[in-house]
Amino acid sequence: MTMSAYGVVLESGAVRFERLLPGPIERVWAHVTEGDKRSKWFCGGEVEPRVGGSVALFFKHSQITDEPPPESAREMNDRGKLMAGTVTAWEPPHRFAFNWIGMGEPDSDVEFVLSQVGDKVRLVLTHRRLATRSRMALVSSGWHLHLGLLEDLLAGAPPRGFWSVHQRLEAEYAERLKDAPV
Q1: Per the similarity annotation, which family is this (predicted)?
Q2: Which domain range does residue 102 map to?
Q3: CATH number at residue 79
Q4: How many beta carbons lie within 10 A of that of residue 70, not counting itself?
Q5: In the predicted model, is pLDDT for residue 1 greater than 50?
Q6: Separation between Cα atoms, residue 55 and residue 45, nearest integer Å
Q7: Is residue 59 part of a domain?
């Protein structure tokens, strides 16, 4: 079975992504949960490693790409933006989930599940409680891009484009999700 880079709708307001990444599982876990490693592909910020612990998500896209951002993303790209969450699952090195506060109303839920598959690691990311199709398209295009950067980082490959493909991907997801349940 071929794994698609595109996220799929699971249910109303929920998308899921799967990636097969270079292992071992402890390495991928570290890149998902440790702020200094996560900042190279997604966002920085510390995670308090326990259920009920705090999650700090510091987005500064200029740390992950040197491509110029669209004007609408310039402040987050250049100055950064802090968002927060609460750990809802902590099962190293297999499952990390959190409630994401401040990404939009209502809050949403993110879950990473990792499993060893030979010398690879299957990462399944599920993002739930996305209230509108436009929010689902924005979040889906973002995860698509960020997970691509994680894949490149773990493979030792040059990072793929980010802002240069962002608008195209967001439009593709808007089209893909136009009939999705919300």
Answers
A1: Belongs to the AHA1 family.
A2: 8-176
A3: 3.30.530.20
A4: 10
A5: no
A6: 7
A7: yes
**Lowest mean pLDDT across 47-51, 91-95, 164-168:** 164-168
Neighbours of 117 (CB within 10 A): 12
Find out whether 148 and 40 touch, Cβ atoms under 8 Å: no
Residue 182, in any domain of the structure:
no
Dist. CA 48–CA 98, nearest whole Å = 11
**pLDDT tens digit string along 102-119?**
776 789 999 999 999 999
Rounded CA separation 182/179 (Å): 9
**How far from 5 is each of 11, 54, 146, CA to CA, in Å?**
19, 30, 11
- Whose CA is closest to 139, among 164, 96, 173? 173
Number of domains in the chain: 1
